[in-house]
């Protein structure tokens, strides 16, 4: 009786591993695509996408639980940090033009008289 239970547990684990690897593969493709488009992806969004994928793939036993999400993030070395900067939203030609105009604005000022706004104590 115990060996039969053990075999069933091994089969269940095998099915869960297969389901997890299928979901992982598709979810990572989606995650990379979203990040390449500079779309911020939160833990909640990623977990909801995993649930949707599980349903669409017909994986009835799959649950995108908090524990599963944590293990997924660990497996794929995903950490959620704040995205800073607007690098991808700026036209490089406009940057070049602005640098030229900025240099002409600075003529007549000494370097010691030029400050960033956050260096003034106003902010």
Automatic annotation (TrEMBL):
Keyword DNA-binding: yes
Keywords, in A-Z order: DNA-binding
Annotated transmembrane regions: none
Subcellular location: Nucleus
SMART domains: CENPB (SM00674)
Domain of life (superkingdom): Eukaryota
Residue ranges annotated for the HTH CENPB-type domain, each copy included: 11-82
Annotated GO CC locations: nucleus
Pfam families given in the database record: HTH_Tnp_Tc5
Coiled coil: none
Keyword NAD among UniProt keywords: no
Single GO MF descriptor: DNA binding
Protein name according to UniProt: Tigger transposable element-derived protein 6
Species annotation: Araneus ventricosus
